[in-house]
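Proteins fold reproducibly. Look at a sample protein:
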Amino acid sequence: MKKYTDKIIGFIKAHKIISSIVLLVLLFVGYKIFFPNTQKAETFLVKKENVVQKVIVNGKTKAVRDSSLSFEVNGIVKTSNVQIGSRVVAGQALVSLDQGQLYADLLKAKANVESEKARLDELKGGTRPEEISIAETEVANSKVTLEDAERNVRDKVVDIINNNVDQLFSNPRTVNPQLNLVLTDLQLKNTINSGRVLMETIINNWKPEEIDQNISKVSTFLDNIALAVNVQTQNTTFSQTTLDGYKSAISGAKSTFITSRESLNSARSALTLAEKNLSLKKSGSAPEVIRAQEAKVMQNEAQVQSVEVQLQKMTLRSPQSGIVTKQDAKVGEIVTPGKVVITVISDNDLEIESNVSEISVGKVSVGDPVTITFDAFPGETFEGSVTYIEPGETIIDGVVNYKVTVAFSKSYPQVKSGLTSKLEVMTEVKNQVLVVPQYAITVRDGVSYVSKVNGKETTEVAVTTGLKGQDGLVEILGGLNEGDVVSMLSQAK
């Protein structure tokens, strides 16, 4: 009987313990539900510390000097001495155009100088009858040469049109010739068809007095034909072999035409020189004639210099030492004036460009020190300073920003162009000023307050704040003294 009684008593005691635990748990949960904001007070001793204000943004490195080079003249690329990634030095020749014609012009100009100098010497020494007779013969011969050159131009035009060009047409010598090439530019095709009609008219009605006009029209026609042929690609109508033949034929036609035209110009120049030479010999050696000849010598010398300047323009040289980042000049290609073909950047002279929002840009000033980090160099820091703030805004994703440039304080050879960086711009520093944490300050109606602790009492005090630091500390300009204690309420755990 006693055994059963003990079991009953034990059961009752265990039941009471469990009930007590459950009750305590319910009381704790209810306390948390109905009194969730119970707070405990923390304090902060007002003291002097350094307050540092920073603006943190991202940026990207770029070359300080970025030179984009282009030619001032048309031409065919003759040499290309560098590739992307090549390291170059200032003054190094990078790309040059075909200078054959200019070299010929230079030689001709130099020859003219020597010729004019020789005539000047003759004037100063007097003219003999034999010399006048020789000069007259030179004029006569030059006229014959010019007439031959004029006939040759016409003959070459006939040969070029009939043998080189007409293979591209159907009914080439009629009033309705049709270019057989495939062109998407219908205006160009119509121009070429009309040009072929014009060529037939020129050939059939060639007049010496219209030779310059005819040369200009033929040159334009051949340029249009060359353009049409060079844009052709292999298709069902023409094989690549046929197209290559067309291109070779037109290229040869242009070369032949240019040669005949230059021969005509040379013949004209020779005749002009011969006539001037005869005139000088007949005019005698009057002082004013000698002065005029001296001026001609100077003019021809100036022409030599002009051609030499043009020759210099046929070669692109690096304006700085650095690395080639763009190279679009291929040997044999035609380049046009103003088209950038080479870009050289300074490899060891870099800066960082960043966009700062309008909210923060007012804090940033030229000269502010900057701490720089790169994802490419974890754990390393680099130093720099703000060197430029662009006055005009830049809109990025609808937000107003301002470009800010940061220069490195020294050379960092490991840093390359195009790296993403994190910039910490130290915009303002105040040393050893009174501070309190930001979260100890309450703002109402534009006035800042803190809870000042006096023993067991807490009094709300208005304070004047100053610089807000990056670490959460705020400068106190008035309302507190060093050693004061302020209360900060934090959520109880």
